[in-house]
UniProtKB/TrEMBL annotation:
This is SDR family oxidoreductase. Pfam families: adh_short_C2. Gene3D superfamilies: NAD(P)-binding Rossmann-like Domain. Belongs to the short-chain dehydrogenases/reductases (SDR) family. It comes from the Bacteria. It comes from Nonomuraea antimicrobica. Keywords: Oxidoreductase. Transmembrane segments: none annotated.
Length: 249
């Protein structure tokens, strides 16, 4: 018996990194999975490898949300789970950051999450219950130099999660946020970010002194997506190896 047997899930930003880990684990746990991304080459390769269905999906576009959700219901007849995983990071100090870069980060990370929630209410309500898991970050708790847009977007995801949890509880739809810390994914190896970080100081601030594997986040996401988390909504779950307990962060 898998944790997600019989469930149908839509996962955004699923072509690589943490999203790809979610896709693989959800399939292992018995879910039927459709995942979206704008990285067509990686997305098609993962679909061929795993058997999950891939759809090109720009999360800032309402039309592409309609297409993604429509693909899920056409293939599987229902939708039970949304994982709002798609996200981008742009390291720039406020003085140096363009408005276009700021808007792009907010668009993908915050607008995309809001559109996702809005787009799945009807199919989740039709299914009789559902779970939405929004991927925020520890940057949704603390600000960091050079990450004003990213931090703003991830703080915003926390707020949207709590509002949506209150609005959607009447439909038996749960909404929670997950806040990863130092995860070994392509996004956190951005050259500008790596050049700006004092790696030694960062490592010393960590309680568990290593970067996590993406699947270590996926296990928490799968739990929240499952019926075992039936009394969890509007809550925040950190997966940061104790990073936020460090006074120096």
């Amino acid at each position: 018996m898998g944790l997600l047997d019989g469930k149908v899930a839509l996962i955004t930003g699923g072509a690589r990194g943490m999203g790809a880990a979610h896709v693989r684990l959800f399939l292992e746990e018995g879910a039927r999975v459709v995942f979206g991304d704008v990285l067509d080459e990686e997305g098609k390769a993962l679909a061929e490898e795993t058997g999950a269905a891939y759809v090109r999906h720009d999360v800032t576009s309402p039309a592409e949300w309609r297409r993604a959700v429509g693909t899920v219901t056409e293939l599987h007849g229902r939708l039970d789970i949304l994982i709002n995983n798609a996200g981008i990071l742009k390291f720039r100090r406020i003085e140096e950051m363009s408005l276009e870069d700021f808007d792009r980060v907010i668009g993908v990370n915050l607008r995309g999450t809001w559109l996702g929630i809005k787009s799945v209410i009807d199919p989740l309500r039709a299914a009789g219950r559902g779970s939405i898991v929004n991927i925020s970050s520890i940057e949704g708790y603390v600000g960091a130099e050079g990450l004003s847009a990213y931090s703003a977007s991830k703080f915003g995801v926390r707020g949207i999660t709590k509002s949506a949890a209150r609005e959607l509880a009447r439909f038996k739809i749960r909404v929670n946020s997950v806040h990863p810390g130092a995860i070994n994914t392509p996004m956190v190896t951005d050259p500008d970010l790596m050049n700006a970080i004092d790696a030694d100081a960062f490592a010393k601030s960590m309680v568990i002194k290593r970067f996590a594997k993406p699947v270590e986040v996926s296990h928490v996401v799968a739990f929240l997506a499952s019926d075992r988390a039936s009394y969890c909504t509007g809550s925040e779950f950190t997966v940061d190896g104790g990073l936020l307990t460090g006074a120096g962060y």
